[in-house]
């Protein structure tokens, strides 16, 4: 069972959110949920056409616009945040979802420096650049922000290693450390910073798997299913809302119990 759209009252009514990597998969599900909760949403993606298409879809149920940018580039990030402010007049919520996908996984000795650097450029440097730019916008003129929130998308790979994914897991460990450090720095300014760590979540890549492969992946999950992007979006919406007003510097794991177990069911005696 996956979460449905929230009932009124809308927790994010009147607020403006920027979702990086928001044009597909988990990012698009997050954008959908924030729109459903009343936020105006700026949809970022590296591809202008894709970001515009996602925003057009969201406009059927709320307010959204596309903002293409490479989040690893300082000038592009600054221009994007300026454009969001120009379009919506403010920025209250940032969701750092953009990341290089965990595809092309290779053994450690086959991992080249270019792949390592690219992973960190998007997954870690992008979080830093977008967070600093957004926090400046949230606290313009040195004013204390009201109900401002940054939510970073991490992974269970930050605390439980994937095989053949050294670079990806290293970046997600960096994201969680950054989340805690930024939470301390920004707390006096009224900006909360938290993270969501998804486990096995369905996306456009897993959709291509056979039914047998999907069942096999679900067997290791205590709740017995692969997660849906909407499961992650529900946690993000909570952390972005006033319901989480006294939560900062934390990571919520959304994994169906995957990391709670000592070993998968097949390995139990």
UniProtKB/TrEMBL annotation:
What keywords is this UniProt entry annotated with? Oxidoreductase
User: What Pfam family is a match for this entry?
Assistant: adh_short_C2
Q: Which GO terms describe its molecular function?
A: oxidoreductase activity, acting on the CH-OH group of donors, NAD or NADP as acceptor
| Residues spanning the membrane | none
Q: What does the record list as GO biological process? A: fatty acid elongation
InterPro entries xrefs: NAD(P)-bd_dom_sf, SDR_fam
| PANTHER family given in the database record | 3-OXOACYL-[ACYL-CARRIER-PROTEIN] REDUCTASE, CHLOROPLASTIC, SHORT-CHAIN DEHYDROGENASES/REDUCTASES FAMILY MEMBER
Q: Which family does it belong to?
A: Belongs to the short-chain dehydrogenases/reductases (SDR) family.
User: What is the name of this protein?
Assistant: Beta-ketoacyl-ACP reductase
Species of origin reads Actinoplanes nipponensis
């Amino acid at each position: 069972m996956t979460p449905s759209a929230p009932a009124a009252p809308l927790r994010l009514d009147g607020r403006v959110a920027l979702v990086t990597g928001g044009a597909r998969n988990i990012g698009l599900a997050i954008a959908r949920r924030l729109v459903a909760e009343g936020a105006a949403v700026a949809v970022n993606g590296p591809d202008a056409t894709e970001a515009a298409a996602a925003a057009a879809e969201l406009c059927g149920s709320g307010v959204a616009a596309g903002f293409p940018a490479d989040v690893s580039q300082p000038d592009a990030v600054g221009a994007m945040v300026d454009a969001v402010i120009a379009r919506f007049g403010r920025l209250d919520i940032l969701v750092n979802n953009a990341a290089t996908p965990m595809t092309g996984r290779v053994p450690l000795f086959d991992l080249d420096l270019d792949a390592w650097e690219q992973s960190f450029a998007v997954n870690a440097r992008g979080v830093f650049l977008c967070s600093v730019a957004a926090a400046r916008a949230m606290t313009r003129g040195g004013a204390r922000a009201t109900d401002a929130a940054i939510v970073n998308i991490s992974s269970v790979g930050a605390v439980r290693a994937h095989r053949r994914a050294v670079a990806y897991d290293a970046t997600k460990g960096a994201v969680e450390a950054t989340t805690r450090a930024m939470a301390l720095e920004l707390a006096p300014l009224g900006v909360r910073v938290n993270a969501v760590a998804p486990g096995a979540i369905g996306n456009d890549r897993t959709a291509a798997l056979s039914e047998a492969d999907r069942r096999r992946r679900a067997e290791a999950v205590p709740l017995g299913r692969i997660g849906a992007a909407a499961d992650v979006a529900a946690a993000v919406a909570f952390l972005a809302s006033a319901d989480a007003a006294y939560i900062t510097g934390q990571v919520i794991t959304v994994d169906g119990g995957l990391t709670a177990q000592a070993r998968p069911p097949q390995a139990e005696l």
